[in-house]
Amino acid sequence: MSLLNGTAPGAAQNEFRPKLAWATVVVIAAFLALFGKLFWLQLVRGDEYRARAEDNYLKEVRIPADRGLILDRNHVVLVDQRPSFDVTLTANYCGRQCEEVLDRLAVTLDMTLEEHAAALGRLAEARGKKNARFKPFVVRVDVRREDVDVLEAQYEDLPGVDVQPVPHRSYRYSALGGHLIGYMNEVGPKEMETLNAELKKGASEQPPYSLGDYVGRRGLEKRYERTLRGVDGVHFVPVDSKGRALDVATVGPEEKRYVPSRPGQNLVLSIDWRLQEFAEKTFPATAGVVAAMDAKTGFLLALVDRPAPDPNKMSGRITAAELRSIYEDPLQPDLFRAIQQHYHPGSTYKAVTAIAALEEGIFRPNTTVRCPGYYTMGSHRWRCDLESGHGAVDFEHALGASCDVFFYAAGAQLGADAIAKWSRALGLGRPTGFDVAGEVPGVIPDVAWHDAKVLGGYQKGMAVNLAIGQGDVNVTPMQQLVMYGALATGTLWRPQVVLRVEDADGRVLKTFEPEARGRLELQPGTRETVLKGLLAAVNQPFGTGWWSRLQETTMAGKTGTAQVMALGAQRLKASELPYFERDHAWFAAFAPAADPKIVVVVLNEHSGFGASNAAPTASALVKKYLELEAQDAAAARPAGVASGP
Amino acid sequence: MALDLSLSSSAQRGTFAQFPGHVAWFVLSICAIGVWNLASASRNTGSPGATPIWKLQLLFMVVFALLALAISLVDYRNYQLFAWVFYAAVILLLVYVALKGKRVMGARRWIGLGPFNLQPSELAKLAVTLALARWLHDDAERRKEPYGMFGLAIPLAIILVPAAIVKFQPDLGTALIVAGTGFTMLLFAPVRWRTIAILGTVAVIGATVGYPHLKPYQKKRIETFVNPEGDVRGAGYHATQSMIAVGSGEGTGKGWGQGTQNNMRFLPEQHTDFVFSVWAEEHGFLGCLILLALYLALIASAIDIAAGARDRFGHYAAIGVAGMLFWQVFINVGMVIGLLPVVGVTLPLMSYGGSSVMTIFLALGLLANVSMRRFVN
Question: What is the mean pLDDT of chain A?
Fold first, then answer.
C-alpha cells in the first residue's frame, strides 16, 4: 500500500538532520535560560526570597511590655497593670456580615447609640484600607467578666469577634495624687510621628509607637514616658494565607520565634503614701492643695491637689459626655493647681514684707507700729483685719496676730521694687523647677510691671496692698512651699518628687540628688525676728494659728486669707457668700522650728479664713509626719542597733 | 487495506528489542518524582477522608502507562490511517464541550465521565499532531516545491481550528500548546524562508492588534509579568508568591513536606499549574537541576527518535511529541519562575490531572511506537 509503505526507511532522515540539529540547540538554549533564572532566584537571591517566605507565614504579634510601676518611697504600689478585656472585630473575617455582627454585639454589650455609631465608623475605615481589613479594631474596651463568658458562648454567631486581654494601667488610688501621677490615652497620628522621630533620634531600643498604643498624657506618666515604657517583645506566629494560626512544627523551634518583652523601669517617688492618704482624708476642701516637703532635701512627701479627674477613667474609659462635663466644670478638675494656678498669697506674704523691711533698714527688729484698726495714705484708708485695732505691735505680734497696719506702714516705705526684690530672693516670680508638668511663673509686680500693665501706672498706694499679699502679687502653692522651705532652712530647694528609677527587680538605675537653687542670705537678726513672729502665730494665744498648735513639736507658720472679690462695705462670713466669691484660706508652716524637717503648705480654695480652714490640716499633717517618723525609727531599731552596748 | 496486526513472532521480538528503554527510565523517574512531590503538595488540600490525589495520580499513571504500552505494540501506521477520524472526533468533542461542557470557574473545558472529567482540549494536542503528521506525510508525495503561502493554508487550518476553539473555552494555555506543537511540526516541513518571515511578521502584528481583545485578566497577567512586584496583592500575587517559593528553596531546598509556601497555602494551584514551585521550594536548585535534566533528556530522546524515524509520518509525529513536551515544560517552568507570563499550562507528569497524564502517555506511546519501528518495513 503506497500510503503505508510509500517512504523508504531512512529516506526522510537526511532531509531533516540539519533542522533537528537546530532544534536541539534551541531546546538546550531554552533550558539554559530556565537554569539561569533558577540560578538567579535560588542561589543569587535565595536569602532574600527565604526572608520573604518567612515574612509571609510568620505573623508578627507584638507582646506589649509591662509599663514601669509607680511606687511611693516605701515601695507601695500606686500604679500598675491589670488585664483589660477588649472586644475587637476584624473586618476581613466577618465579611458582609459585619453589620449584623455589630448589631448582635450591641445587644449583648448593651451599647449606646453613640458607641454603636463609632464602631460602624471604624468598620467603614477598616474596609476602606487594604491592609486595615486584617487589623482588629476595638469595639468596646474593658468588658466585664460576665460579658466575656457570654461572648464566648456566642462565638459561633460572632465571626471576627475576639476578646483580648490587654494590659491596662491601673491607678490604684483613682483620683488621689491624680495630677501628679497623670494618666495615659491613645496616641494621636501627628503625635505618633513626633514621638517616633524622637525614638529614632535617640537610637532607642523601644519599637516605634503604632496607632492604638497608649502614651503618657499628663503628670509623671507623660514626663517619664520613656522611662516607664518598656521594650515590646515579638512573637512570630505561623499563619496560613488566610491569617489563621497554624500549629506547624516544621517552622522551627518556638523559642526562636519568640523575643520576650522587657518591662519598663519603675519610678520610686519621695511621696509617703501614708501621709498622702492621711492628708487626703484630713483636708476638708472641695478644691485646693496640700503640699508637704522634706525641709532638708526639697523632696515632696505629699501632694494633694483637688479636684482631679480619675485617671482610670481618663485612660480611654470615658465617654464624650463625661469628658465634656470635666472640661465644663467650673472647679476645673483638669487644672494642676499646685503649679498651674495663680493665687494671691494673702497674709502668708507678710513674711516677705517683714524680711524686706528688715533687710532694707526700713524697720529695726524692735520697731513697733501703732495700729488703730486702719492705715491712711493721702485720702485713702486701708482697713486692718481687726477693726478695733491691735494697738502698738512689734514684728512678733504683727506676724503672730497678722496685723495689716504694721505691714501697710512697712510697704508704704519699701515701695513695690524693694518688696519685689525680696520676693525674688525667696524664689517667687519664677517657676520652681518642679519638673513634672508645665508651671505658671507667678507674678511679682514691681514699679515697671505696674507701669506696663496697670492703667495710670504705678501709684505709691499699690505697695501698701502688696505688703499684705493682695494687689497684683500672685504665687503658686508650690512657690509658697519653696519660700517657706527657704525661711525654714535658708536653702531654696528645687522641689522634686522622684527619688529613684529602679528596674523591675528593684535594682537602682538612677538616683535623684537634692538640688539647691540658691541660699537665702540675710543680715544677722533678720531670720530670728521673722521666725519669732511665725512661732508666735502658732504658739502664742494672740496668734492666728493658736488653735492649731501642737504639743509634740514647735511649729512655725503663717495663716493667710486671700481675697477673691473686692470687699464691700460690710464684712460677711464665708458661709454667707456664694462659693466662688469666698476667700481662699492659706496656711504655710514648718516644724520643728529649731531644726525644720517638714514644710507644709495648705491652700483651701473659697473656704474663708486660713486659721480655721487651712491650719488644722497642716498641723495634723505635721503631727502625722512625726508619728510616722517615730514608728519607722522603732521598726528599724532592732536591726540597726544590733551591735550596740 | 488490512490492519497489519499479524507480524511474525521474530519480527515481534525484533520490534520489542527496539523498545526505547532509556525513554521509559526518564518517564518513570519523572513519574516517581511527580507522585512524591504531589504527596507533599496536596498535604493540606482536599477534604479529610477523600483519597489523596497522589494516589489517584499514581492510578492514572499506571492505567495510562499500560495503555501507552498497548499503543506502542500496534504499528503506528494503523494510527496514521485513523488520524483524520481521530481529528474529526476531537473537533466534535471540543464543539460539544464549548456548548454543553461542565462549567468550572467560568470556563467550559470538561466533559463529565462518571467520577472523572475529561478535558478534550488535552486530546486536541494529540489530534493536531497526528492529523498534521498525516497531512505533511501525504503531501510530501505530491509536492516538489517548498511550501509557500497558499500551500500552508490547509496545515494552518488543521492547527488553528482546534486551537481557536480551545482558546475560546477559554483556555489560552492549552491553545498555545496546541498551536506551538503544530507550528513546531510545520518548521520541519519544507517551507520557504520568505513565507516563514512573512508569517512571523503577521504574527507579531496580529499580537499587537490582538492585545486589546484579550480578556482583562489576561492583559493583567502580561502587565504583571513585565512588572511582577507592581501589584503584589492583586494579579501579581500568584507570580510573586511562586517566585518567593522557588527562590526560598535556595541550593538544596527545605526538604519534602517542609515548604512553608506550600504548607501555608500561599501557592496558587499548587498541585496543578504551580506544582513546580513546590518542587523548587522543597528541593532547591539541585532538585530543579535533576528534574529539568530528566525533561531535557526526554525531549532530546524524542528528537533523536524523530531523526531515526522510518518515514515522514513517524518523523513528524515524534517531532510533534517532542514539541508538545518542550513547550509545556518551557512555558510551565518559565511561568513558575517568572520568566514568562502566567498562563494555565500543566507540567507533564508533575501536575495532577487525569486528562493531562493520559495525553502525555498516549503521546509517549506514539513516540515509543515510532522508535520501535525504525527498521520495520
Answer: 87
Say which of A4, A35, A43 has its CB closest to residue B250.
A43
Q: Give the E-state strand segments of A400-514 in sequence order.
A: 491-493, 498-502, 508-511
Of B187, B250, B315, the CB nearest to A12: B315
Report long-range pairs for A34-39 (Cβ below 8 Å, ≥24 apart): A34/B292, A34/B330, A34/B333, A34/B334, A34/B337, A34/B339, A35/B288, A35/B289, A35/B292, A37/B334, A37/B337, A37/B338, A37/B339, A38/B246, A38/B280, A38/B285, A38/B288, A38/B289, A38/B292, A38/B337, A39/B285
Q: Per-residue pLDDT for A72 more than 70?
A: yes
Interchain contact, B248 vs A50, CB within 8 Å: yes
Distance (Å, rounded) from C-alpha B309 to C-alpha B316? 9
Q: Does one domain contain both A150 and A279?
A: no
Identify whether residues A379 and A506 lie together within a single domain: yes
Which of B241, B292, B308 lies closest to A34 in CB terms?
Answer: B292
Tell me the one-letter amino acid at A226. R
Within 45-64 of B, beta carbons closer than 8 Å to A belong to: none
Residue B84 CA to its chain's centroid (Å) = 21
Is pLDDT at B222 greater than 80 in this prediction? no
Around Cβ A19, how many Cβ atoms within 10 Å?
A: 16
Name the residue range of residue B67's domain: 20-44+51-372
Domain end call among A113, A134, A159: A159
Query: Which of A636, A632, A588 is closest to A293 using CA atoms?
Result: A588
Does any domain span residue A110?
A: yes
Report whether pLDDT(B218) > 90: no
Query: Across the A/B interface, how many CB contacts are shorter than 8 Å?
Result: 165
Residues 104..133 of B with a Cβ closer than 8 Å to A: which? Answer: none
Q: Distance from CA of residue B243 to its chain's centroid?
A: 23
The domain boundary, picked from A107, A138, A159, lies at: A159
- As to burial, measured by CB atoms within 10 angstroms (0-12 exposed, 13-18 middle, 19+ buried), residue A190 is exposed
B34 in a structural domain: yes
Q: Which residues of A touch B310 (CB under 8 A)?
A: 7, 9-10
Least CB–CB distance from A27: residue in B299, B334, B374 = B299
Nearest-CA distance A154 → chain B (Å) = 27
What is the ipTM for the molecules in this complex? 0.90
Split at pLDDT 50, 70, 90, the class of A216 is very high
DSSP three-state, residue A585: strand
Separation between Cα atoms, residue A313 and residue A329, nearest integer Å: 16
Residue B11 domain flag: no
Number of domains in chain A: 2
The runs of H, that is alpha helices, within A468-579 are 477-489, 526-539
| Residue A414, domain CATH | 3.40.710.10
Number of independent structural domains in chain B? 1
Which residues on B lie below 8 Å from A24 (Cβ)?
Answer: 300, 303
Partners of A45 on chain B (C-beta within 8 Å) are 247
To the question of pTM greater than 0.95 for the whole model, the response is no
B268 touches A at CB < 8 Å:
no
Residue B377 lies in a domain: no
Domain extent at residue A370: 273-318+338-634
H-helix or E-strand spanning residue A598: strand A598-604
Same domain, residue pair A154 and A280: no
Q: Measured between alpha carbons, how far is residue B370 from residues A561, B30, B304 in Å?
A: 119, 21, 11
* Contact (CB, 8 A) for A397 and A371: no
**pLDDT tens-digit map of A436-472:** 999 999 999 999 999 999 888 899 889 999 999 998 9
The confidence band for A218, taking pLDDT boundaries of 50, 70 and 90, is very high
Q: What is the DSSP secondary structure assignment for residue A41, as one 8-state letter?
A: I
Q: Is residue B15 part of a domain?
A: no
Residue B71: which of B324, B316, B376, B368 has the closest Cα? B368
Coil, helix or strand for B107?
A: strand
